[in-house]
Amino acid sequence: MTIAYDPPALDGETLDALLYDHLSEWGPSDQFYLDLVMAAESVLDVGCGTGTILRRARAEGHAGRRVGLDPDPAMLGQAQESDAAEWVRAPASAAAWDAEFDLAIMSGNAFQCLLDDAETVASLTAVRRALTDGGRFVFDTRNPAVKAWRTWTSAEPYRFTDPLGEPMSVVQEAGEPDGEGVVRLDAYFSASYWDEPLKASCGLRFPAPEHLDRLLKAAGLAVEERFGSFTGAAFDPAASGSLITVATPLGRNGLRPRAGAGGGAGEVPSRRSNHPRHP
Ligand SMILES: C[S@@+](CC[C@H](N)C(=O)[O-])C[C@H]1O[C@@H](n2cnc3c(N)ncnc32)[C@H](O)[C@@H]1O
């Protein structure tokens, strides 16, 4: 169900979600995922948000099955304005499909919304189950070694015009990672709608690559390819901003059902990289 953009009536997180597309542009990471989607028969977009990638895929003639999954009613409500895909409101851990998709994606750093090992392994296990044996799960996270959160606290407000034509600004404050590697990010929106800034908070986890590999293995997935940028550069543990992973299901014997690289993960960086709230 669509939630109306009515700032005085919204909490900060809902406002933030309803501004998501307004503050985002199509970028190289979207194109990277779109290319993968266009080459796949059946696609599960995990944490699909407003459904941007699946909507574009349908507009560009993708003829197979498209399913978008997201737990956030404000994000998914925007996706549901389109019939470009089947839209399911649920977290990744509740994905209930069995060997139905040859591609699952988790774009825009949505994977970082999985805030602890238990939720991450449950989510990965559900995604693995949804994949065919030869299927692939492609997702991006940010490399903790680069400490991107240290650039997220605003020096100046980011000013923009909201969907109703009102001047609005936002400032951000990011903390340091806690014991689980979770960074808290608070945003404060200001506009004539409110006497005080409206606060929106979220947590983003920064798993290290070795940690990520252990979580994937625990869920029956193995790393097939890894990139450090959406241009397809190799992952550099010390310098790459992004950690882009292509994972495949392990067979019942713990071995990969097929050998070699999957290909297809060519060009990629992120529309979300210039999003002031999803940097
Ligand atoms: C930064 S947005 C990215 C949205 C979209 N993938 C994109 O590229 O535009 C992160 C999304 O992850 C979703 N999310 C949060 N927790 C989740 C979970 N446990 N399972 C699946 N998605 C989740 C949020 O609701 C949000 O829509």
UniProtKB/TrEMBL annotation:
GO BP term (any one): methylation
Coiled-coil regions listed: none
Segments traversing the membrane: none
Annotated segments matching region Disordered: 252-279
UniProtKB keywords: Methyltransferase, Transferase
GO molecular function: methyltransferase activity
Residue ranges constituting the Methyltransferase domain according to the UniProt record: 43-135
Organism superkingdom: Bacteria
Annotated protein name in UniProt: Class I SAM-dependent methyltransferase
Organism: Glycomyces mayteni
